[in-house]
Design goal:
CATH architecture of the largest domain: 2-Layer Sandwich
Largest sheet: 7 strands, mixed
Number of helices: 4
Radius of gyration: 17 Å
Number of strands: 10
Number of domains: 2
Shape: globular
Length: 207
């Protein structure tokens, strides 16, 4: 089965962009289901996530992602500042990098620490040390994961998040598909919008 992991990010945008990240993930989930694809939220369960990791699986997963990678725009009034005049909000969507392709992410340079999970993730999180904190010793970067039920799954997600952080730190993408993920929010706004959603119901606007 074909599988991709998409990274939706608010960049350096305000809380409205974090809200758009959450809404866009829900929209993608609806659209994926409509195409007969599996969609799983791997990370970013908080109410206003700065970024989200989505796993898309199925024969058309790559095509699904390709149509959404780049700058995504939402047109609507701020849900937090009703008098705010701005109505255009931008977030970036990219393919998450494969940790194995990151030359400076060597397994021997990573420390893993199991810890008790808290918050979203299910009742089991208060009873098991399923969460994982990873530390990349050469850079001091730290990533945590707790949304998955098993420590092994959270270990994999935490390592993936380290890969994303290293790519962001490097300041450039491995290829054009990932490029928008590593740019500052101001560049997201100047980029070519791939998809546009509008209104409180987050409806896709026809081209």
């Amino acid at each position: 089965m074909n599988e991709v992991i998409m990274h939706i990010t608010a960049g350096k945008g305000p809380q409205e962009c974090c809200w758009v990240v959450a809404q866009l993930a829900r929209a993608f989930a609806r659209e994926a289901k409509g195409m007969g694809l599996e969609c799983e939220l791997l990370d970013g369960t908080e109410e206003l996530p700065s970024s989200i990791l989505l796993r898309i699986a199925g024969d058309a997963a790559s095509a699904f992602a390709a149509q959404r990678i780049g700058t995504n725009q939402w047109i609507g009034s701020s849900p937090f500042r009703p008098t705010h005049k701005r109505r255009n909000w931008f977030v970036g969507v990219a393919l998450a990098p494969e940790p194995e392709t990151i030359s400076d992410l060597r397994e021997e340079d990573i420390d893993y620490q199991a810890m008790r999970a808290s918050g979203p993730g299910g009742q089991h999180v208060n009873k098991t040390n399923s969460a994982v904190r990873t530390t990349h010793r050469p850079t001091g970067l730290v990533a945590t994961a707790q949304e998955q039920r098993s420590q092994q799954a959270n270990r994999k997600i935490a390592r993936l998040k380290l890969a994303i952080m290293l790519e962001e730190r490097r300041g450039q993408a491995k290829d054009d598909q990932r490029r928008s993920q590593w740019q500052v929010h101001q560049e997201l706004e100047r980029g070519n919008t791939i998809r546009v959603y509008t209104g409180e119901r987050f409806q896709l606007r026809s081209a």
